[in-house]
Specification:
mainly alpha
């Protein structure tokens, strides 16, 4: 049985912090559909990391890390749209997108480690 503490993973910490920052930034936004979707995608990243790390096999873990990576792309797209609509400032958008891209790279590396491609 795998015994990993997802809370110790730097990628989980960073993605959790980003989710909190995004949710706080959207507080008071009246476009409830966009807010809901952006909150879901941002929360999905650390949630899928945690779920994957709690799974029994490396294959299952990698699958959930892929889900988290996909949610990064989804969140980045939604941040671009929210910025164009004026719900997120350009300055915040740059920070959020940069952090999400960094998290995506971290996830890609972790997937390779989990799959035994990189040691």
């Amino acid at each position: 049985m795998r015994t990993l503490d997802f809370e110790k993973l730097e990628v989980w910490k960073k993605s959790s912090r980003l989710a909190v920052d995004v949710v706080r930034e959207l507080d008071g936004c009246r476009n409830y559909g966009l807010v809901d979707q952006l909150m879901r995608s941002s929360l999905s990243i650390p949630s899928n990391i945690a779920e994957g790390e709690e799974r029994e096999t490396i294959k299952e873990s990698a699958r959930f890390l892929y889900y988290a990576k996909g949610s990064c792309g989804e969140m980045i797209t939604q941040i671009y749209i929210a910025t164009e609509l004026g719900y997120i400032s350009k300055q915040k958008s740059v920070v959020f997108i940069s952090e999400a891209k960094h998290i995506s790279v971290m996830l890609a590396k972790l997937i390779k480690i989990r799959k035994g491609i990189v040691r």
